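pinging the channel bc i need a second pair of eyes. not urgent but kinda urgent?? the chain im working w is below, pasted from the shared doc
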Amino acid sequence: MGFLSPRPDDDKPLARRLRLTGRVQGVGFRPFVYRLAKALGVRGWVQNRLGEVVIQAQGPAAVLESFQRDLLAKAPPLARPELARVEAVAAEGASGFTIRDSEAREAVQVHVPPDLDVCPDCLRELHDPQNRRHRYPFINCTQCGPRYTLVEHLPWDRPNTAMAGFALCPACRAEYTDPANRRFHAEPVACPDCGPRLTFTDGNTHDSGEAALQAAAERIAAGRIVAVKGIGGYHLICDATSEAAVRRLRARKARPHKPLAVMFPQQGADGLAAIRACARLSPVEAEALRSPARPIVLLARRAGAPLAATVAPGMDRLGAFLPYSPLHHLLLAALDRPLVATSGNISGEPVITDPEEAEIRLGTVADAFLHHDRPILRPVDDSVLQEAGGAIRPLRIGRGLAPLELSLPVPIDRPTLAVGGHMKNTVALAWDDRLVISPHIGDLDSPRAQSVFARTIADLQSLYRVRAEQVVADAHPGYASTRWAKDCGLPLRTVFHHHAHAALPALERPEVARWLVFTWDAVGLGEDGRLWGGEALLGRPGTWQRVASFRPLHPPGGDRAGREPWRSAAALCWAAGRDFTPPVDPQLARAAWARRLNCPATSAAGRLFDAAAALLGLVAKASFEGQGPMWLEAACAEAPLPEAPALPLHEHDGRLEADWEPLLAPLGDPDRSLAERAALFHATLAATLLAQASTLRRRHGEFTVGLAGGVFQNRRLAETVLAQLAAAGFDAHLPGTLPVNDGGLSAGQIRECLPVPPA
C-alpha cells in the first residue's frame, strides 16, 4: 500500500501506523526516524521488528504527510526503505517520540545488510589526535562497519551479533543509548577501553594494540608477508612495489601466475590519486572504486606503473581497490605505498577467518600474523568488478555486495534452495517474490570449501527465517553441490548447466518474451549427455531449444584439458591433419586420441580459447583456471581488432554448427605478430556469433540476444560482440547484476524453476 493522503488543511491530530521494509536495519534508520520526528514535532514511537521497522506517528495531517514523504526522501545513504503499509490507528496519547526495544516476530521480509566501508565521519575521527577513538582500528557507526559477517541472527541488536561478548564502557554506552547520536544502536560500536584489540606475532615477538599495528607495518616495509585479519577473513599482505616480496609470496603460496589484487592508499581530492598513478580510470570505474562496497575493480594498467612486475604477469589489467576498514587505512598510512592484499586461503578455498586456523594453514606462507579478537561469523571474500560495454559488472559478489537481494519476476510456488555449480560457487534462496544470492564461496574441491558451502546454506535459511522445501542443482552428477543436494532429503530438481546460464539475462530483463542466449564457457553437461559450452539457446526459461553450437573437439585427457591448454590445441590440430607435438609422450597421446580413450567430445568455446593460447605459445599448462584465455585477451590489448570472416556454419542435427578448422592457419601464421593473431582470433569468434544470430533471426524471427557463461568475462570479446550486434539491429544484453560466470548459476537455477507463462 502507498501513502494515505490526509487533507493538508486538516490540523486535527491524527495517528498513523507505518510499516517499512527493505534495508532498514543496521543502517541507522531508527535514529534517523527519531531525529526527523523531533524536527517535525511528531509524537509516537519507532521499533525494529524482524525484517521491518514499525512507526506509530501522531500529529496534524499536514505534518504526518511531510513525515511520511521524508522517511523515504531523506533516509540515510545506506538505507533502502520501502513503505509497505500505512493505516489509521487510535492515538496513544504520547507526549514525545521514543525508540522502543526491538521485537522479534515471525516474518519473512527480513533484509540482511552487507558489510560496509568506513564512513567519512569515522575516518576523520580515526585520524584526529583529540578524539578518543584516535587510531582505533575498529571504529564504526550506524553508517559503516561489518554487518553480515558479524550478525548471528536478526533483529539487528548487539546481543545477536559477534559483539555480544564486549561489554560497553560508560562512554560508549552513553553514545549507544542516545537517539541523537550517530552511534545510537550501532551494534559493533566500541572503543580502545571496551572493544576488540589487535595482537601481533611472528613466533618471537608478541605485541598488542598500537604496538601490534606498528610491528606489522615494520615487517611489511622490510619485505615480509603478514597475514592480516580483516572484516570477512584474512588477507596475505606484502609490499606491492617490492619484486622480491611479491615473488616470495607467490613461491610460498604456490601461485606462480594468478593476478594479485593491490590495495592503494586513499590519496588526493577523490581518493584515487595513488591508483591513477598505476592505472587508467573511466568515470564508472572511479565511481565503483569509491562506492560503499569498496570492491576490487579490474583496470587498464599503465606502462611503467611503480609496481612489481609479478603482481599480474602476462596481464594488461590490474585488480585495484581502496581500503575499506579502519585497520587498512592505518596500515596504508604507516607504509604510504600500495600493498598486495590477496585472500588468506589455500588456493580456491574460502578465506580463513579463525586466528588459530590461520596460523596452522598459513604458517608456511606468512612471516607474521596481525590478529584481532572480534569474531568473524562467516567468511566473505572481496567483490570483483570490471567495466564492459560502458557499465560496471560483477565477476565475483562478496563483501559489500552480498547477500544480494533481488525481486523475482513472478512468485515462486514454494521456498527453494539453489546450490549452484562446482566452480565459483554461490547458493541462492527464493521464496514468494524474493531471491537472495550468497557471497562467493569458491570451488568445491576441498572438505573445507564443502563445509563452508553447507554452513552458508544453513545461514541463509536461518537469517531470513525461510526453510527451503525443495532444492535445485546442476544436472552434472559429479559436482559436489549436486551430491549434497541429492543427500539433503529435500525434493530435488536438476537444471542443465547452460539452461541456468541462459536464464540469467532473462532474470535481469523479465519483460523480454523471447531470447537467443549464447552460453559460452569451459564445459557443462548438456541435454544429450555431452559436454557443451559453445551453445546458442532459443526461447525463454523452461523452454530452451539448442539452435547453434561449435564443431566438437576431443581433447585427450578429459577433465585435465581445463588446466592443460595444449590438450585442446592437440585435439584441433590432429583432427585437421596437422602436426602437433605435445609436452608428454607424443605417440601415446596421439594413439589415445585416435582411439577416443578418455577424450570426451565437447563443443565448448572456452576450449577454443585454451587451444589458441597454446598454439600462440602463451600457455601450455595453466597454473590457475582461465589463465590461457586471460593471457590471450591481454596479448591483443593494444591491437585493433581486424575485419574477420565468420567461421563456416554447417547444418548438423537441426542446428548451426561453426567449424573452427579455418582458425588454425592464421593462428600459426609466422608473418603475423602475436598481437595480430590474438586479435584475429577474437575478431573471428565475434563475427561467428554475429553470423549465427543473423542466420537464426532470418529463420526464427525476432528475439533479444543474451550473453552468458564465463567466456564473456573476456572484456574485449564482450564489447566487440555487443557493438556488432547493436550495429546489426539486435537488442543485446550482458548481465550486470550477477556474474556472467558460474557465480550466477544459482540465480539462473532459480529462474528456471519459476512458472512458465502461456506462450
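so The first helix runs from residue 29 to 40. and Residues 1-10 have pLDDT under 50 and may be disordered. — does that match what u expected or am i reading it wrong
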